[in-house]
Amino acid sequence: MAKRSLGLALGSNLGNRIANLRSAVGGILSFCENPSLLTSSVYETVPVDCPEDSEAFYNAVIQVRTDMDPHELFEKCQAIENQLGRPEEREHNAPRTIDIDLLYYGDWVITEGPLILPHPRLEERRFVLQPLCEIRPGLILPGRKKSNEEILESLESDEPEPNPVFPQDTWL
Q1: Residues classed as catalytic
Q2: How many whole angstroms separate alpha carbon 61 and alpha carbon 45?
Q3: Cβ(2)–Cβ(67) under 8 Å?
Q4: Angle at which helices 17-29 and 70-83 pack, to 10 degrees?
Q5: Is 12 inside any structural domain?
Q6: Neighbour-count burial for 14-50, b at 16+ CB within 10 Å, e otherwise
Q7: Enclosing H/E stretch for 8
Q8: Domain carrying residue 67
Q9: Is residue 141 part of a domain?
Q10: pLDDT tens, residue by residue, 120-171
């Protein structure tokens, strides 16, 4: 299979949040190309659809390249989540040491199963769109008509503007 660019959203709201993001990226880079790494800033964001007493998240988006099958990549990302302390059995949107979401994988469209591409809620989440626009504002994802930047500009959300806490290319 040819190498493709893929976007991953990272989030953490338990423990040392920046260390959790760094550890997740380290795990991802163990099976993806490092020279192609793009990183957004790290943003502190309010928890969305989480239990009431949840702490703020650190969120970032990275883009890497790989020739790995997307389902295999998905499984490897879930293994990283488990290694970093995220239990397999958990309440929906419970606080977590790490969350890794596959946002897009080249021009792939997958509509069934545990992996859906592009990510089905990406267009609804400022905490994902803001960092994604930092690295790929003009990207039009498969099946979409608008660029990420156009989607962010037209987003209607009660979610507050994310606060950058670690500038792009400084937190790894």
Answers
A1: 86, 96, 99, 101
A2: 13
A3: yes
A4: 140
A5: yes
A6: beebbebbbbbbebbeeebeeeebbbbbbbbbbbbeb
A7: strand 4-12
A8: 4-166
A9: yes
A10: 999 999 999 999 999 999 999 999 999 999 999 999 998 998 989 999 989 9
Find tokens 């969120």 and name the residue: 59
The CATH number given to whatever domain includes residue 42 is 3.30.70.560
At 6, is the pLDDT very low, low, confident or very high (cuts 50, 70, 90)? Answer: very high
**Cβ neighbours of 113 (radius 10 Å):** 8
For the chain, what is the domain count?
A: 1
Q: Which residue carries 């080249």 as its tokens? A: 106
pLDDT digits (tens, 9 = 90+) for 87-112: 666 666 678 899 999 999 999 999 98
Secondary structure of residue 118 in the 3-state scheme: coil
Beta bridge partners, 62, equal: 8, 39
